Amino acid sequence: MSEAPQKKGTWWSIGVGLGITVLLIGTAIVTEPETPESADGGGETAQRTLLPLQLQDNSFEITARGMVQAAHLTMLSPGVSGKVDKVHSLFSPGEIILKGTPLVELEKFEYRARLAKAQAELEQARLDVSTEQAEALKAVKKTYSSVSKSGRDSELVLRVPQRRAVNARLNAAEAYVEESEQALRDTVLHAPYTCQVVECSVGLGSRVVAGQTVGKIIPLQERMIRIPVPLEEFSALPRDEQGRVRVPLTASCTLKNGKLLQWRGRVTAVDSALDPAGNSAILIAALDPNESHVAEWQAAPVNMALQVNINVQVPASAWIPSAALKNGSSIQVRTPTGMQERKVQLVVLKDGKALVTVPEFQDGDVLLL
């Protein structure tokens, strides 16, 4: 009575055991690693992720905060020395001054006296020339029939040395008058262009010397944008044949009334000094001519903040996971002949991805991660 159930249980156990054995063997077959040959004779497991590698035109955008600056700063200094007699009421920081406005005037008494003396010397020199010409004419008439045979005697008889001397004094007197007139004009310092005053460092009654800085101004209608860009993004910017950065950009701002102003511009230079605080390069950009909102741009206040966007085009490139880079200069790929390393040129890293170019790329390359 008890033998039948016992045999039944035994067969059930044997069946379960055989099923487990078959399952394990099947699993081992399914999960057995694939070992394709590599170029160096090693192997890579098929469990690594494979990513087809395709080169195409890609782009990335650099977004930065730009600052409006004057195109240049002019240091004002008089051409002569003297005591300040007048200072224009608008010659103070922040004021707008039109081109040609007299900013500073020096006392003119000394320079007027100098000019009067120069003019008197000029009149005397002209009189001496006229007198000498008359004497020379008399000498010619008197000695016309008995001119010496030698050229030297002829010059003495015709008073050539005397005429040369008075002509030289006349030329010197004319130059002295021109110099004195210029000095008198230089007692008035005019605005060289329509400008905004940055600094006035002179007052009524103070003494100044020629070349001394008395103020600083910036042009009212010439602006540029200074844009700090992180060095890793700066290095990704394309260069022209001379190695210069000349990429286009857009700059925008929103006015208090909600109006959006946007300009197209272009990088024109790179500041030779880096920004140590942000470890950044400073791009200098200018507005392209004939763009919209030109009037608003010309009147843009210094130090106004702008949103700057630079779109960088990278032909024949690919975005790959940054983890696939080996030492930042190579990747591992599977080729029809096996595993190989490809040298890459890193353009930029963004959000865990790397934009690279692959100079040795071949059709059929598959990236191994």
CATH overall fold name of the largest domain: Elongation Factor Tu (Ef-tu), domain 3
| Uncertain regions spanning at least 5 consecutive residues | 1-8, 25-45
From the alpha carbons, calculate the radius of gyration and give it in angstroms.
43 Å
> Helices and strands: which structural class?
alpha+beta
Number of strands: 20
Describe the biggest sheet?
Answer: 6 strands, antiparallel, barrel
Q: Given the C-alpha coordinates, what overall shape results?
A: elongated
The overall average pLDDT, rounded, is 82
Q: Order the strands across the largest sheet as they lie in space.
A: 2-11-14-13-12-15
How do the SSEs run, as a string of H and E?
A: HEEEEEEHHHEEEEEHEEEHEEEEEE
Share in helix? 25-40%
Beta-strand portion reads 25-35%
CATH architecture of the largest domain, by name, is: Beta Barrel
Number of helices: 6
CATH superfamily of the largest domain: Efflux pump adaptor protein, beta barrel domain
Structure overview:
By secondary structure, the chain is an alpha+beta fold. It folds into 2 domains: 58-70 and 222-368, Elongation Factor Tu (Ef-tu), domain 3, CATH 2.40.30; 74-219, Beta Barrel (OB fold (Dihydrolipoamide Acetyltransferase, E2P)), CATH 2.40.50. The chain is 29% helix and 34% strand. The chain has 6 helices and 20 strands. The protein has a 6-stranded antiparallel β-barrel with strand order 2-11-14-13-12-15. Strand 18 and strand 19 form a beta hairpin. Helix 2 packs antiparallel against helix 4 (160-185). It is elongated, with a radius of gyration of 43 Å. The chain starts with a helix and ends with a strand. The model is unreliable at 1-8 and 25-45 (pLDDT under 50). This is RND efflux pump membrane fusion protein barrel-sandwich domain-containing protein. It comes from Akkermansia biwaensis. Keywords: Coiled coil, Membrane, Transmembrane, Transmembrane helix. Residues 108-135 form a coiled coil.
